[in-house]
Amino acid sequence: MVVVYFDTRPKRKREDLYDREGELGEFENSLKSGNPLTVITGIRRLGKTSLLLVGLNELELPHVIVDFRGVNPNSRMDVYKRIEGAVNAFFRENRGIWEDVKGDLKNISGLRLLGFGVSFSWKEGKTDLIALFRELEKHNVVLAFDEVQYLRGPVGSEFAGLIAHLYDYSELRMVMTGSEVGLLHDYLGVDDPSAPLYGRYFHEVSLSRFTPEQSWDFLLKGFEQVGINPQEKLIEEAVERLDGIVGWLVLFGKKAMEKGPSEGLIGEVFEEAKALAMSEFENFLEKRQVARGRYMEIMRAVAGGKRTWEEIKGHLEKKEGKSIADSVLARLLKGLVDSSFLERRIEGRNVYYVIPDPILEACFK
User: Fold this and answer.
1) Residue 127 contacts by C-beta under 8 Å, 6 or more apart in sequence?
2) What confidence tier does 8 reach under pLDDT thresholds 50, 70, 90?
3) What is the rounded distance in angstroms from the CA atom of residue 67 to the CA atom of residue 149?
4) How many CB atoms lie within 10 A of CB 276?
């Protein structure tokens, strides 16, 4: 039996993508209408890459997908090597397009043709990416950049300028995805007139977590696919503790397939997921060592139920034994919200903060 919902690889077919018809239709309509830039957002592990792949495959659009996760934003070599690898993967899968364009590719500065593919240069005389992408434009190729918020710093700004040029002077359709929503919006220059992409319209498709009803149905259908009939109590606990995060529900289903459903399984999933979630948070802290302790205490405060501005500030001041300026706390909270480790919510006149990932919240409890 084919495993669909509990396959941890990104989905590529419509039937593999559970209950995202609305978001998928919105994404496909944006591409079909010719929007030059479509953006897919949502916190980690909600299936953004799957939505991207399914939409492109359903529309049968040739596409280059560059995964920028973990890229060194200060290294032009690293950024160019990511793009080079994605372009060569595209040519291997689209040999007809390769045969059509390889003659013209010889004329692009900084680009060297290999037996089957291309080699980039990233120093002086760097590869003219605009010319390369304009050649792909002739074949209706979609350019997709996954987790583009990692492109910060001078190289990232240089790349944003390239995207702005293609936006203004080509008919290419481009897609960006991002889990750190605030940082992605910063990259797109939503509120910054000095940003290269400021003022360009983009259509945003936002993914949200599953409702409890969707989570329940997702697990039931997934278990049905693989011939497993777990106790209702086990599914109920998984729905409650994993709180609509698709990636964690998939991990639970996969573990149940491997070891069989049991009472201790959710705890095992939690421990494995906690290690991954904390690893991601440690990556966030790595470049913020000066404020490391304060970031940790804010997360502990929110996980412990202190969720308003006043409660968080009081927690920090009690821990440090001194006053903390509002501007400092605002900067710390913005960093966590922009990176999607916190969410800022408003109910009526009340503003409060929550940790959107239940696994990460458990780490700080």
Assistant:
1) 80, 108, 109, 110, 111, 120, 121
2) confident
3) 11
4) 16
* Residue 168 C-alpha from the chain's centroid: 25
Q: How many CB atoms lie within 10 A of CB 262?
A: 14
Question: Which residue blocks in the chain are alpha helix, DSSP H?
Answer: 21-32, 48-58, 76-93, 95-105, 129-137, 153-169, 181-187, 212-225, 232-242, 246-259, 265-286, 292-303, 309-320, 326-338, 358-364
Integer Cα distance of 98 and 136 in angstroms:
10
Residue type (1 letter), 278: M
Tokens encoding 47:
């299936």
Return d(Cα 103, Cα 99) in angstroms, integer. 8
Look up residue 258 and give its amino acid: E
Please tell me the total number of residues recorded for the chain in this structure.
365
CA dihedral 201, 162, 32, 138 (to 10 degrees): 150
- The predicted model scores a pTM of 0.91
